[in-house]
Amino acid sequence: MKDLKQKTAYVTGGSKGIGYGIAEKLMENGVNVVITSRSQDAATEAADRLNALGHPGRCVGTEADVRSLKSQQKAVALARDTFGGLDIVVANAGVGHFAPVQELTEEQWNETIDINLTGTFLTVKASIDELIKSKGYLFTIASLAGTNFFASGSAYNASKFGVVGFTQAVMLDVRKQEVKVSTIMPGSVATHFNGNEPDESDAWKIQIEDLGQLVIDLLKMPARTLPSKVEVRPAVPQ
Questions:
Q1: Annotated catalytic residue: which of 10, 20, 137, 156?
Q2: Residues 6+ apart with CB under 8 A from 2
Q3: Which GO biological process categories is it annotated with (predicted)?
Q4: Is 156 a catalytic residue?
C-alpha cells in the first residue's frame, strides 16, 4: 500500500501496549482506526488520546471481546460502516499466564488459549471477507515464544506456537486473492502486559512505537514482496 491515507484499520486490544503503538503509527500515516478493548471506557479513553494527537475523528474505540465471533463481527462492521471499508486488520489482543504446568490452572490455560489463539481465529474469521474485497493486509501479533519454548510457558507457548502456524496457513489460503498476511513475533517489549508499568529501566526493550513503525514498513513493501513471518528482538539484550 503506497498511499495509506484514508485507509481503514481494525486493531484488537488497541487501548494500550502494542496495539496502541500500532494504532498511533497508523494514524500518523493517515489511516482511520477502530480500536477495541474489553472495556468501553478504556477503548473510549484511548481513542480520545489518539484523536487529540492531531487526528480528530479518525479513531473510534469500541468494546469487543475476541472470544466472541458475534462481538468481532459487530466491531468489524463498525469499522466498515464508519469509514467506508476495511483495509488493515491487526489481531493483537493477548494475555499471558506463566507457571509450571503442575501449578497452571485449567482456567488460566483456557483463558490463554481462548484469547491468544481462538481470539485470533475469530478476528480473522470476522474480517477476512472485507480484506478480500479490499485486497488488504492482515497482521497477527505472535511472539518469539511462538518458536522458543521456556519453563513456565506451557500455556503461552502453546497459544503463540498456534498463532504462528495458524497465520502462515491463512497466508497460503488468501495470497492468491491478493490479501497479504504477516505474523510479527516480538521479543521483550516495554508494555503494560500482565499489569507491568513501563519505566526507564525498560529503555533497552522494543518500544511500542517501534512495532508500529514495523507495521508501516511492511504495509509499504512492494506489492510483489511478502515478509510473511517477522522476528523482532531488542538490539542489545540485558
A1: 156
A2: 220
A3: monocarboxylic acid metabolic process
A4: yes
